[in-house]
Please model this.
Amino acid sequence: MTQGPTVTGESPSPAVYGQSDRPPRGDYSRGGEVRADYTCPQDYAAYTASDHETYRRLYERQSALLTGLACDEFIDALPLLGVKDRIPRFEEINDRLFPATGWQVVAVPGLIPEVPFFTLLANRKFPVTDWIRKPEEYEYIVEPDVFHDLFGHVPLLFNPVFADHMQAYGAGGLKAHRLGACEQLARLYWYTIEFGLMQQTDGANPGLRAYGAGILSSSGELVHAVTSDAPHRLALDVLRAMRTRYKIDSYQQTYFVINSFKQLFDLTTPDFTPLYEQVRKAEELTPDTVQAADVVVKRG
Ligand code: PHE
Ligand code: CO
Model:
């Protein structure tokens, strides 16, 4: 069953987000195996021993860093991803994920356009790029690969509150598309789902922790985001985040902080239609701005 738009032509076309001069990575034809909703079979046979080794090393290094830096919900759910010493089969993950929260991981050839992306999320399907970075890109890659998508995003889909938030985001994205407000919503996604921090209060170890996938899948930014004195850390305000531009090729200069996934869910439940109007009228902010109205958790 495909819920995506009808795609005309031979095969779906790639999408590029952010400002990039390079062509998008990924093979969007795959011998006709990419469906109209941009999903495709995970090309497991294409992985080389070196690809599995890249995943194993990234997983090992990143999981060793998590204590004191990643939120408890993430640390608790990470083992549910399964195998650590090779790239997992998506079906193996779905055997646990679907019964837990009704979510499924689906393979895609790379970044996909907004409407199919939001449609998948609204149907509790998380698109995961199936290829992995090359050894020479081990430290840094701009576009999402299978390590970023699986390690960064999928553990929290086992958390019921976060899982519901992601579905609501998908439905909200389709609405934003109708309203011409995708860029505003993309900023909120960036500052929460990709680069969000949480002030963890309960549990045995309170403190600032990461929940955003872009942070959790990067060894450098995980330490930077949680421990560096350089960035600003502001309490999440949806309008404020939507007004703030972001950079895709450097550590963030501002992070937005939530108290809990319940708070994130509650802040994003209201109808954003009037908010988008306000954002349109308000001045855009650079990523290093702090304003008098901001609730500053820690000034950089
Ligand atoms: N409540 C938002 C709207 O009405 C949708 C949304 C939900 C956006 C969750 C982001 C996250 O548009
Ligand atoms: Co991501």
